[in-house]
Design brief:
- The structure is a single chain.
- This protein has 345 residues and is an alpha+beta fold.
- A five-stranded mixed sheet has the order 2-4-5-7-6, covered by helices on one side. The chain has a two-stranded antiparallel ribbon with strand order 1-3.
- A hairpin with a 5-residue loop joins strand 6 and strand 7.
- The model has no long low-confidence stretch (mean pLDDT 79).
Length: 345
């Protein structure tokens, strides 16, 4: 306790007269050392914070650079993919046009072959009728016998009947080929019999013999009515036949193609197209429906035939297509198609 001078210990003056002073002596060197001590960690912390900030900034700049580079790469890849897709569509369109022209050539050949028989019969019948007419005219000049008109009527009538039947067959063929042409040129749903569409899909389906170097066996269930796109369906069957004749029997003198259709429940039809040829190597089997995949590029193959078949079956006809190797050898294509196809734009 402090007391003022002249004031007894037990007596204190007025409160206002009590003043306390605290004097401290500070060493300047010690003060400088203390300041240095607390400023040094602060400087180190600020330097560390600045270093971290610089590292973050560098990392941000590097990340931004990587992002920009990836963005440019993605844009370039997207551009390349767009161009490849456009090229694929162009090639598909070119191949479709080429296949239409090829189908047109096959159809013209089929029409000529089919019409040749009835027209030949009609020509023979007209020749017979003309010969009998000339004979009757000669008999009229030489003197007509009673049996001559009857003989002419009998022979001439038979010839004209042959002509009539041949022309009827020719008209039916023209009508059928006309419907095939309409189916191939249009995209309209219509009701048809599956067996007739298979037979009309390719002229070779009517002319390949059951027994021959390349035999054809058809097992077509009757009365399989479908309401679908007949033209694209015929094109699918024709392409599968062309694929088998091109690839299945390479290096073989004989072979057999089997085409089978049957009902698969009340709403679907199953089409099985098989050959007993070389089959597909297991490593290539998962890729034969891919675009541009071909083992005959050296021979002009484009690798789009089966891909277009797959697209037509799955996207237009609304079915499924499965490719596999048969256990006994050869390739098998199984199509499962709805009897009622969806209307497509």
């Amino acid at each position: 306790m402090l007391r003022a001078p002249g004031v007894p210990l037990n007596q204190s003056g007025p409160k206002d007269d009590l003043k306390l002073r605290l004097l401290a002596r500070v060493d300047p060197a010690a003060e400088s050392e203390a300041a240095r001590r607390w400023k040094q960690p602060l400087a180190v912390g600020m330097a560390a914070a600045l270093g971290v900030a610089l590292l973050l900034a560098l990392q941000l700049v590097r990340s931004r650079s990587v992002e920009l580079r990836r963005t440019r790469q993605l844009r370039a890849a997207n551009q390349a993919l767009t161009e490849a897709n456009d090229n694929l569509r162009s090639v598909q369109a070119d191949l479709a046009r080429a296949e239409r022209l090829s189908s047109l050539g096959l159809m013209v050949a089929g029409v000529a072959h089919e019409l040749n028989t009835p027209l030949g019969s009609a020509t023979l019948g007209l020749g017979t009728a003309q010969q009998e007419l000339d004979t009757l005219a000669q008999r009229l000049r030489q003197g007509l016998r009673r049996s001559d008109p009857e003989q002419y009527l009998r022979a001439g009538g038979a010839g004209l009947e042959t002509v009539h039947e041949a022309l009827r067959r020719a008209a039916a063929l023209v009508q059928r080929f006309k419907q095939v042409a309409v189916d191939r040129a249009s995209m309209q749903l219509r009701v048809f019999d599956r067996a007739e569409i298979v037979r009309d899909a390719d002229p070779r389906l009517r002319h390949l013999p059951p027994e021959g170097p390349i035999a054809l066996r058809l097992h077509l269930a009757p009365d399989l009515q479908m309401d679908s796109y007949a033209g694209p369906l015929e094109q699918v069957v024709s392409n599968l036949l062309e694929n088998a004749l091109t690839h299945a029997f390479d290096g073989r003198a004989r072979g057999c193609i089997t085409l089978q259709t049957r009902a698969d429940g009340p709403a679907h039809v199953l089409v099985r197209f098989a050959d007993d040829g070389n089959g597909v190597p297991p490593a290539q089997l998962p890729h034969i429906l891919d675009p541009f995949f071909t083992t005959r590029r050296h021979a002009g193959g484009t690798g789009l035939g089966l891909h277009i078949v797959h697209q037509t079956v799955t996207e237009l006809l609304g079915g499924t297509l499965r490719a596999e190797n048969a256990p006994e050898g050869g390739a098998v294509f199984v199509l499962r198609l709805p009897r009622q196809a969806q209307l497509r734009a």
